[in-house]
Amino acid sequence: MMLKSLCQIGIIVLNKTLKPVNSALFGLIYIIVFLSFTIFCIKRKPYNYHRFNLWLSVSHFAVLWSLVVSSIFLVSGNRFTLFWIFLEYLGWIIIIIAGVLIQTKFYPSLLYREKTLDISLFFRFSLGRNAMEKSLFLEMTRKRNQNSQKIDKFGVEVCNK
């Protein structure tokens, strides 16, 4: 993403030039640049998986929330750090809950698992749960392999020399 690199370079240049002079103006420009980048990512949907695009937007909104709250507390000169931390975490929790609700409602999981073999019969056979199952399994194995090879009473192939 070339736009991301350009935004990062612009922010670094502004950090070195504008922030020492006026930090409030730097914060406002930083919010505007990051908001425009977030809007660009929401419109372009840079990833092929909808859930990833959703969580990219959620993370951008969490960063924007942090930027706005930090800038408000910086400009107002308010030094209530406990209230500021509480407000930060409350916003993050609300944003994450909203992201989870949107994901469960609009974006079902597209990942699937192939069905695996049912190996419970093999365990039941090997642990001797039922003698009838063993004998049935051995009988089926003998009939299947009758023409090609010989099987002894334990189900083991017998080699003739």
From TrEMBL:
It comes from the Eukaryota. The chain crosses the membrane at residues 24-42, 54-75, 81-102. This is Uncharacterized protein. Keywords: Membrane, Transmembrane, Transmembrane helix.
